[in-house]
UniProtKB/TrEMBL annotation:
<dbReference type="InterPro" id="IPR004358">
    <property type="entry name" value="Sig_transdc_His_kin-like_C"/>
</dbReference>
<dbReference type="Pfam" id="PF02518">
    <property type="entry name" value="HATPase_c"/>
</dbReference>
<keyword id="KW-0902">Two-component regulatory system</keyword>
<keyword id="KW-0808">Transferase</keyword>
<dbReference type="InterPro" id="IPR005467">
    <property type="entry name" value="His_kinase_dom"/>
</dbReference>
<dbReference type="InterPro" id="IPR003661">
    <property type="entry name" value="HisK_dim/P_dom"/>
</dbReference>
<dbReference type="InterPro" id="IPR035965">
    <property type="entry name" value="PAS-like_dom_sf"/>
</dbReference>
<dbReference type="InterPro" id="IPR003594">
    <property type="entry name" value="HATPase_dom"/>
</dbReference>
<keyword id="KW-0547">Nucleotide-binding</keyword>
<dbReference type="InterPro" id="IPR036890">
    <property type="entry name" value="HATPase_C_sf"/>
</dbReference>
<keyword id="KW-0418">Kinase</keyword>
<dbReference type="InterPro" id="IPR050351">
    <property type="entry name" value="BphY/WalK/GraS-like"/>
</dbReference>
<keyword id="KW-0597">Phosphoprotein</keyword>
<dbReference type="InterPro" id="IPR036097">
    <property type="entry name" value="HisK_dim/P_sf"/>
</dbReference>
<protein>
    <recommendedName>
        <fullName>histidine kinase</fullName>
        <ecNumber>2.7.13.3</ecNumber>
    </recommendedName>
</protein>
<dbReference type="Pfam" id="PF00512">
    <property type="entry name" value="HisKA"/>
</dbReference>
<keyword id="KW-0067">ATP-binding</keyword>
Protein backbone atom coordinates (compact mmCIF):
# COMPACT_ATOMS: atom_id res chain seq x y z
CA UNK A 1 0.00 0.00 0.00
CA UNK A 2 1.30 3.48 -0.86
CA UNK A 3 1.60 6.30 1.67
CA UNK A 4 -1.45 7.99 0.17
CA UNK A 5 -3.48 4.81 0.54
CA UNK A 6 -2.30 4.36 4.14
CA UNK A 7 -3.42 7.88 4.80
CA UNK A 8 -6.88 7.41 3.23
CA UNK A 9 -7.35 4.14 5.00
CA UNK A 10 -6.55 5.63 8.43
CA UNK A 11 -8.72 8.68 7.72
CA UNK A 12 -11.69 6.36 7.18
CA UNK A 13 -11.23 4.65 10.56
CA UNK A 14 -13.72 5.81 13.21
CA UNK A 15 -11.05 5.52 15.94
CA UNK A 16 -7.78 7.29 16.63
CA UNK A 17 -5.29 5.17 14.67
CA UNK A 18 -1.69 5.22 13.48
CA UNK A 19 0.82 3.00 11.72
CA UNK A 20 4.30 2.11 13.02
CA UNK A 21 6.57 0.26 10.60
CA UNK A 22 9.76 -1.75 11.16
CA UNK A 23 11.83 1.46 11.22
CA UNK A 24 9.99 2.04 14.53
CA UNK A 25 8.63 5.32 13.25
CA UNK A 26 5.06 6.49 12.93
CA UNK A 27 4.44 6.47 9.19
CA UNK A 28 0.82 7.67 9.22
CA UNK A 29 -1.75 8.93 11.71
CA UNK A 30 -5.35 10.07 11.33
CA UNK A 31 -6.87 13.31 12.66
CA UNK A 32 -8.27 11.60 15.76
CA UNK A 33 -4.80 10.29 16.64
CA UNK A 34 -3.31 13.76 16.14
CA UNK A 35 -5.95 15.25 18.43
CA UNK A 36 -5.08 12.67 21.05
CA UNK A 37 -1.28 12.62 20.70
CA UNK A 38 -0.23 15.84 18.95
CA UNK A 39 -0.11 17.29 15.43
CA UNK A 40 3.54 16.55 14.58
CA UNK A 41 3.72 12.84 15.22
CA UNK A 42 4.28 11.41 11.75
CA UNK A 43 7.95 10.58 11.18
CA UNK A 44 8.77 10.41 14.88
CA UNK A 45 9.92 7.33 16.80
CA UNK A 46 6.79 5.88 18.40
CA UNK A 47 8.39 5.69 21.87
CA UNK A 48 8.89 9.47 21.93
CA UNK A 49 5.14 9.97 21.37
CA UNK A 50 3.60 7.09 23.28
CA UNK A 51 5.68 7.27 26.40
CA UNK A 52 3.67 4.91 28.58
CA UNK A 53 5.72 1.74 29.14
CA UNK A 54 2.79 -0.67 28.69
CA UNK A 55 1.90 0.88 25.31
CA UNK A 56 5.54 0.87 24.12
CA UNK A 57 5.84 -2.75 25.11
CA UNK A 58 2.67 -3.75 23.25
CA UNK A 59 3.84 -2.09 20.03
CA UNK A 60 7.32 -3.57 20.44
CA UNK A 61 5.82 -7.03 20.82
CA UNK A 62 3.62 -6.66 17.74
CA UNK A 63 6.56 -5.46 15.64
CA UNK A 64 8.71 -8.35 16.80
CA UNK A 65 6.14 -11.17 16.64
CA UNK A 66 4.25 -9.74 13.67
CA UNK A 67 1.11 -10.42 15.67
CA UNK A 68 -1.55 -8.77 17.83
CA UNK A 69 -1.28 -7.24 21.29
CA UNK A 70 -3.27 -4.99 23.60
CA UNK A 71 -2.70 -2.43 26.33
CA UNK A 72 -4.16 0.72 27.92
CA UNK A 73 -3.32 4.34 27.31
CA UNK A 74 -4.17 6.87 30.01
CA UNK A 75 -4.75 10.49 29.06
CA UNK A 76 -6.50 13.65 30.12
CA UNK A 77 -8.77 15.66 27.81
CA UNK A 78 -8.47 18.83 29.86
CA UNK A 79 -11.69 18.19 31.78
CA UNK A 80 -11.15 14.65 33.04
CA UNK A 81 -8.89 11.61 33.02
CA UNK A 82 -9.57 9.34 30.08
CA UNK A 83 -8.71 5.72 29.39
CA UNK A 84 -8.12 4.20 25.97
CA UNK A 85 -7.95 0.57 25.05
CA UNK A 86 -5.00 0.22 22.65
CA UNK A 87 -5.17 -2.53 20.03
CA UNK A 88 -2.06 -3.40 17.98
CA UNK A 89 -2.45 -5.51 14.81
CA UNK A 90 0.24 -6.39 12.35
CA UNK A 91 -0.41 -5.57 8.70
CA UNK A 92 1.80 -7.34 6.14
CA UNK A 93 2.98 -5.66 2.98
CA UNK A 94 3.11 -2.02 4.03
CA UNK A 95 5.75 0.26 5.46
CA UNK A 96 9.18 1.29 4.28
CA UNK A 97 11.27 -1.62 5.52
CA UNK A 98 10.82 -5.37 5.91
CA UNK A 99 7.31 -5.24 4.53
CA UNK A 100 5.02 -4.69 7.45
CA UNK A 101 3.66 -2.27 10.01
CA UNK A 102 1.64 -2.28 13.19
CA UNK A 103 -1.78 -0.66 13.08
CA UNK A 104 -2.31 0.92 16.50
CA UNK A 105 -5.90 1.97 17.30
CA UNK A 106 -7.30 3.68 20.40
CA UNK A 107 -10.82 3.03 21.72
CA UNK A 108 -12.12 5.44 24.36
CA UNK A 109 -13.33 3.27 27.26
CA UNK A 110 -13.72 6.15 29.74
CA UNK A 111 -17.53 5.88 30.09
CA UNK A 112 -17.25 2.16 30.88
CA UNK A 113 -14.51 2.81 33.43
CA UNK A 114 -16.67 5.50 35.02
CA UNK A 115 -19.74 3.25 35.18
CA UNK A 116 -17.63 0.59 36.87
CA UNK A 117 -16.28 3.12 39.35
CA UNK A 118 -19.78 4.39 40.11
CA UNK A 119 -20.98 0.86 40.79
CA UNK A 120 -18.07 0.20 43.14
CA UNK A 121 -18.63 3.51 44.97
CA UNK A 122 -22.32 2.78 45.29
CA UNK A 123 -21.79 -0.67 46.79
CA UNK A 124 -19.19 0.74 49.17
CA UNK A 125 -21.58 3.52 50.25
CA UNK A 126 -24.55 1.23 50.80
CA UNK A 127 -22.45 -1.22 52.78
CA UNK A 128 -21.07 1.56 54.91
CA UNK A 129 -24.52 3.05 55.56
CA UNK A 130 -25.92 -0.32 56.57
CA UNK A 131 -22.95 -1.36 58.62
CA UNK A 132 -23.14 1.56 61.06
CA UNK A 133 -26.64 0.79 62.42
CA UNK A 134 -26.02 -2.94 62.17
CA UNK A 135 -22.88 -2.67 64.31
CA UNK A 136 -24.86 -0.69 66.89
CA UNK A 137 -27.64 -3.29 66.96
CA UNK A 138 -25.18 -6.16 67.34
CA UNK A 139 -23.42 -4.35 70.16
CA UNK A 140 -26.68 -3.85 72.04
CA UNK A 141 -27.73 -7.48 71.58
CA UNK A 142 -24.48 -8.48 73.23
CA UNK A 143 -25.07 -6.04 76.09
CA UNK A 144 -28.64 -7.27 76.57
CA UNK A 145 -27.42 -10.84 76.83
CA UNK A 146 -24.57 -9.94 79.16
CA UNK A 147 -24.20 -6.94 81.46
CA UNK A 148 -27.81 -5.73 81.10
CA UNK A 149 -29.36 -9.18 81.55
CA UNK A 150 -31.03 -8.24 84.83
CA UNK A 151 -31.46 -4.51 84.34
CA UNK A 152 -34.98 -3.75 82.99
CA UNK A 153 -34.36 0.01 82.80
CA UNK A 154 -31.22 -0.42 80.70
CA UNK A 155 -32.95 -3.09 78.59
CA UNK A 156 -35.72 -0.66 77.79
CA UNK A 157 -33.31 2.08 76.80
CA UNK A 158 -31.22 -0.22 74.60
CA UNK A 159 -34.29 -1.64 72.88
CA UNK A 160 -35.32 1.94 72.13
CA UNK A 161 -31.97 2.64 70.44
CA UNK A 162 -32.13 -0.66 68.57
CA UNK A 163 -35.56 0.27 67.28
CA UNK A 164 -34.19 3.60 66.06
CA UNK A 165 -31.26 1.96 64.29
CA UNK A 166 -33.48 -0.68 62.70
CA UNK A 167 -35.76 2.14 61.59
CA UNK A 168 -32.82 3.86 59.95
CA UNK A 169 -31.92 0.70 58.01
CA UNK A 170 -35.53 0.30 57.00
CA UNK A 171 -35.66 3.89 55.70
CA UNK A 172 -32.41 3.39 53.82
CA UNK A 173 -33.71 0.29 52.05
CA UNK A 174 -37.01 2.05 51.33
CA UNK A 175 -35.19 5.07 49.87
CA UNK A 176 -32.94 2.87 47.76
CA UNK A 177 -35.93 1.04 46.33
CA UNK A 178 -37.74 4.25 45.59
CA UNK A 179 -34.64 5.73 43.95
CA UNK A 180 -34.37 2.61 41.83
CA UNK A 181 -38.00 2.84 40.77
CA UNK A 182 -37.78 6.52 39.92
CA UNK A 183 -34.60 5.96 37.92
CA UNK A 184 -36.03 3.08 35.96
CA UNK A 185 -39.14 5.13 35.08
CA UNK A 186 -37.20 8.29 34.32
CA UNK A 187 -37.82 8.01 30.57
CA UNK A 188 -41.52 7.29 30.91
CA UNK A 189 -43.54 10.50 31.01
CA UNK A 190 -46.02 10.74 33.86
CA UNK A 191 -49.66 11.07 32.76
CA UNK A 192 -51.77 11.95 35.77
CA UNK A 193 -53.19 15.36 36.69
CA UNK A 194 -51.86 16.76 39.94
CA UNK A 195 -53.28 19.76 41.78
CA UNK A 196 -50.29 21.40 43.43
CA UNK A 197 -52.40 23.64 45.68
CA UNK A 198 -54.05 20.59 47.25
CA UNK A 199 -50.84 18.56 47.43
CA UNK A 200 -48.97 21.35 49.21
CA UNK A 201 -51.80 21.82 51.71
CA UNK A 202 -52.01 18.14 52.55
CA UNK A 203 -48.23 17.64 52.72
CA UNK A 204 -47.97 20.59 55.12
CA UNK A 205 -50.69 19.02 57.23
CA UNK A 206 -48.94 15.72 57.51
CA UNK A 207 -45.61 17.37 58.36
CA UNK A 208 -47.10 19.68 60.99
CA UNK A 209 -46.31 17.32 63.92
CA UNK A 210 -42.65 17.15 62.85
CA UNK A 211 -42.56 20.96 62.58
CA UNK A 212 -44.18 21.47 65.96
CA UNK A 213 -41.69 19.11 67.54
CA UNK A 214 -38.84 21.10 65.98
CA UNK A 215 -40.38 24.42 67.00
CA UNK A 216 -40.93 25.49 63.39
CA UNK A 217 -43.90 27.37 61.95
CA UNK A 218 -45.08 26.27 58.52
CA UNK A 219 -46.47 28.90 56.15
CA UNK A 220 -47.69 28.73 52.61
CA UNK A 221 -48.35 31.40 49.99
CA UNK A 222 -50.00 30.98 46.64
CA UNK A 223 -53.29 30.76 44.77
CA UNK A 224 -56.19 29.15 46.60
CA UNK A 225 -57.53 27.73 43.37
CA UNK A 226 -56.19 24.48 41.87
CA UNK A 227 -52.88 24.69 40.00
CA UNK A 228 -52.70 21.63 37.78
CA UNK A 229 -49.67 20.02 36.22
CA UNK A 230 -49.24 16.71 34.45
CA UNK A 231 -47.45 14.43 36.82
CA UNK A 232 -47.31 11.47 39.12
CA UNK A 233 -49.14 12.38 42.31
CA UNK A 234 -47.13 10.12 44.65
CA UNK A 235 -43.87 11.40 43.24
CA UNK A 236 -44.84 15.07 43.43
CA UNK A 237 -45.80 14.43 46.98
CA UNK A 238 -42.42 12.84 47.65
CA UNK A 239 -40.67 15.92 46.22
CA UNK A 240 -42.68 18.20 48.52
CA UNK A 241 -42.17 15.96 51.54
CA UNK A 242 -38.41 15.65 51.05
CA UNK A 243 -37.88 19.39 50.55
CA UNK A 244 -40.11 20.51 53.41
CA UNK A 245 -38.71 17.86 55.72
CA UNK A 246 -35.17 19.02 54.93
CA UNK A 247 -36.16 22.64 55.55
CA UNK A 248 -37.56 21.66 58.95
CA UNK A 249 -34.63 19.39 59.87
CA UNK A 250 -31.74 21.55 58.68
CA UNK A 251 -33.22 25.04 58.47
CA UNK A 252 -35.45 24.73 61.51
CA UNK A 253 -33.30 26.95 63.67
CA UNK A 254 -34.72 29.89 61.71
CA UNK A 255 -38.11 29.05 63.21
CA UNK A 256 -40.01 29.36 59.95
CA UNK A 257 -40.44 27.38 56.75
CA UNK A 258 -42.36 28.85 53.83
CA UNK A 259 -43.77 27.09 50.76
CA UNK A 260 -44.61 29.38 47.87
CA UNK A 261 -46.53 28.31 44.80
CA UNK A 262 -46.73 30.50 41.71
CA UNK A 263 -47.48 30.23 38.03
CA UNK A 264 -45.77 31.76 35.02
CA UNK A 265 -46.96 32.14 31.42
CA UNK A 266 -43.48 31.33 30.35
CA UNK A 267 -40.51 30.20 32.39
CA UNK A 268 -37.16 30.15 30.57
CA UNK A 269 -36.07 27.07 32.56
CA UNK A 270 -38.73 24.89 30.93
CA UNK A 271 -39.33 27.09 27.86
CA UNK A 272 -43.06 27.39 28.37
CA UNK A 273 -45.85 27.77 30.91
CA UNK A 274 -44.77 26.57 34.32
CA UNK A 275 -45.65 26.15 37.97
CA UNK A 276 -43.00 27.10 40.48
CA UNK A 277 -42.71 25.68 43.99
CA UNK A 278 -40.30 27.30 46.44
CA UNK A 279 -39.43 25.89 49.83
CA UNK A 280 -37.46 28.33 51.94
CA UNK A 281 -36.10 28.33 55.43
CA UNK A 282 -34.22 30.85 57.53
CA UNK A 283 -31.70 28.38 58.89
CA UNK A 284 -27.93 28.16 58.81
CA UNK A 285 -27.73 27.80 55.02
CA UNK A 286 -25.45 25.56 52.99
CA UNK A 287 -21.81 26.33 52.22
CA UNK A 288 -21.48 26.98 48.45
CA UNK A 289 -18.81 24.24 48.17
CA UNK A 290 -21.54 21.67 48.83
CA UNK A 291 -24.15 22.98 46.40
CA UNK A 292 -23.02 21.24 43.20
CA UNK A 293 -22.93 17.83 44.89
CA UNK A 294 -26.07 18.08 47.01
CA UNK A 295 -28.19 15.85 44.77
CA UNK A 296 -25.61 13.04 44.67
CA UNK A 297 -26.61 9.86 46.43
CA UNK A 298 -25.43 9.74 50.02
CA UNK A 299 -24.04 13.26 49.89
CA UNK A 300 -24.55 15.20 53.09
CA UNK A 301 -23.42 18.76 53.65
CA UNK A 302 -23.11 18.24 57.38
CA UNK A 303 -22.84 14.52 57.71
CA UNK A 304 -22.80 14.38 61.47
CA UNK A 305 -25.92 16.47 61.85
CA UNK A 306 -27.72 14.68 59.03
CA UNK A 307 -26.96 11.20 60.41
CA UNK A 308 -28.02 12.33 63.85
CA UNK A 309 -31.35 13.35 62.32
CA UNK A 310 -31.73 9.90 60.78
CA UNK A 311 -30.93 11.12 57.25
CA UNK A 312 -29.79 8.69 54.57
CA UNK A 313 -28.51 11.32 52.13
CA UNK A 314 -30.82 9.98 49.40
CA UNK A 315 -33.69 12.49 49.69
CA UNK A 316 -32.43 15.07 47.19
CA UNK A 317 -31.17 12.39 44.79
CA UNK A 318 -34.75 11.10 44.66
CA UNK A 319 -36.09 14.64 44.20
CA UNK A 320 -33.71 15.28 41.31
CA UNK A 321 -34.76 12.13 39.45
CA UNK A 322 -38.45 12.84 39.96
CA UNK A 323 -38.04 16.41 38.71
CA UNK A 324 -36.11 15.14 35.67
CA UNK A 325 -38.85 12.64 34.92
CA UNK A 326 -41.34 15.53 34.94
CA UNK A 327 -39.07 17.49 32.58
CA UNK A 328 -38.72 20.13 35.27
CA UNK A 329 -35.79 21.94 36.84
CA UNK A 330 -34.52 22.28 40.37
CA UNK A 331 -32.42 25.12 41.80
CA UNK A 332 -30.88 25.82 45.18
CA UNK A 333 -29.99 29.22 46.53
CA UNK A 334 -28.44 29.50 49.93
CA UNK A 335 -26.77 32.16 52.01
CA UNK A 336 -24.75 31.08 55.00
CA UNK A 337 -26.40 32.34 58.13
CA UNK A 338 -29.65 33.47 56.54
CA UNK A 339 -31.28 30.48 54.91
CA UNK A 340 -31.90 28.25 51.92
CA UNK A 341 -34.44 28.20 49.11
CA UNK A 342 -35.10 25.16 46.93
CA UNK A 343 -37.05 25.93 43.76
CA UNK A 344 -38.75 23.32 41.62
CA UNK A 345 -40.09 24.43 38.25
CA UNK A 346 -42.55 22.09 36.56
CA UNK A 347 -43.86 22.52 33.01
CA UNK A 348 -47.63 22.95 32.75
N1 LIG B 1 -32.82 23.32 53.85
C1 LIG B 1 -31.57 22.90 54.10
N2 LIG B 1 -30.72 23.62 54.87
C2 LIG B 1 -29.45 23.20 55.12
N3 LIG B 1 -28.93 22.03 54.64
C3 LIG B 1 -29.72 21.27 53.88
C4 LIG B 1 -31.07 21.64 53.56
N4 LIG B 1 -31.60 20.68 52.77
C5 LIG B 1 -30.64 19.75 52.62
N5 LIG B 1 -29.51 20.08 53.28
C6 LIG B 1 -28.24 19.32 53.31
O1 LIG B 1 -28.22 18.48 52.17
C7 LIG B 1 -27.95 17.14 52.54
C8 LIG B 1 -28.65 16.19 51.58
O2 LIG B 1 -30.05 16.20 51.78
P1 LIG B 1 -30.90 14.89 51.47
O3 LIG B 1 -32.33 15.21 51.68
O4 LIG B 1 -30.47 14.37 50.16
O5 LIG B 1 -30.38 13.84 52.58
P2 LIG B 1 -30.75 13.69 54.11
O6 LIG B 1 -31.78 14.70 54.51
O7 LIG B 1 -29.46 13.67 54.84
O8 LIG B 1 -31.37 12.26 54.18
P3 LIG B 1 -32.85 11.77 53.76
O9 LIG B 1 -33.54 12.93 53.11
O10 LIG B 1 -32.59 10.65 52.82
O11 LIG B 1 -33.46 11.35 55.02
C9 LIG B 1 -28.42 17.03 53.97
O12 LIG B 1 -27.71 16.02 54.63
C10 LIG B 1 -28.12 18.41 54.53
O13 LIG B 1 -26.77 18.45 54.97
MG1 LIG C 1 -33.63 14.83 53.36
Amino acid sequence: MSDALNHDFLAAMPLAALLVDQSERIIAANTEAQTLLGQQIVGRHYATILRQPQVIEAIERSLRDKGASRSRHLANDGAQDTTFEVACRYVNGIGAVAGGAVLVSFTDVTPMEQAGQMRRDFVANVSHELRTPLTAIMGFIETLRGPARNDPAAQDRFLGIMEQEAGRMNRLVGDLLSLNRVESEERIRPRGAVDLTAQIASTLNSLRPLATEAGVELHSTGPETPVNVTGDEDQIRQVLTNLIENAIKYGGRGGEVRVTLSEAERDPAVRGPAARIQVSDKGAGIDPVHLPRLTERFYRADSHRSRQKGGTGLGLAIVKHIVNRHRGRMRVESTLGSGTTFTVILPK
